[in-house]
Structures are given as C-alpha cells and as structure tokens.
Amino acid sequence: MSETQTFSHKIFVQKRNLISIPRDIRDSLNINEGDVLDISLVDNKIIIEPMKLVPSSQAYFWADRTQRDLLDAKEDIKSGNTREFKTVKEFLDGIEQ
Fold first, then answer.
1. How far is CA 46 from CA 18, 71, 90, in A?
2. Judgement on whether residues 31 and 7 belong to the same structural domain of the protein
3. Which among 24, 31, 54, 80 is least surrounded, fewest beta carbons within 10 Å?
4. Contacts of 82 (CB under 8 A, 6+ apart)
5. Domain span at residue 45?
6. Is the full-model pTM beyond 0.85?
7. Could you read off the pLDDT of 10-64 as tens digits, one per residue?
8. Whether residue 49 sits in one domain with residue 26
C-alpha cells in the first residue's frame, strides 16, 4: 500500500477564478495538462480528485468485482491454490466441478 503524503499550500485565486496546483502536488499525483479533475464540496471543503478516463470497452476491468476477483486470484497463485490442465476439455470439465 502506498505511503500517505500530506501537502499544504496557500494559493491565490487569479483572474477568471483560476487557481494553480503546486508542482509537488501535480508531480505526486501525475496530473498533467488536459487531465480531468473532479471537484466537489464536502463539509465546507473543496476536494479535487484526479480522474483517469477509461474506454467503455475496458470499464469492466476496473469494476469493484473484477478487481476483487483479480486480488483473490493473485492470493490463490501465491498460496499455490492452482490446478494445471493438459487439454481444453480437461479445463472445461474442471470448471464444472
């Protein structure tokens, strides 16, 4: 798991209500020109979160269930809880078990 980092900066609202995100924060979150940011108001605080857009054909991969299944599979492999199949028929028969 990644280490939690805390940054604090005082910034000024510029003309046309623009703000600049300080370089160390941009670098830490890999925020670049053209990236999408989600901005929300929570308990009188502004929360800005980087968003990564995913093509709809790949969205299933990032679904919570798929991510949980991948983590479970990784644990199975790590613990040796795997089977080897020599033929497709043997594999398909193994799925039914």
1. 14, 33, 56
2. yes
3. 80
4. 76
5. 1-53
6. no
7. 999 999 999 999 999 999 999 999 999 999 999 999 999 999 888 888 888 888 9
8. yes
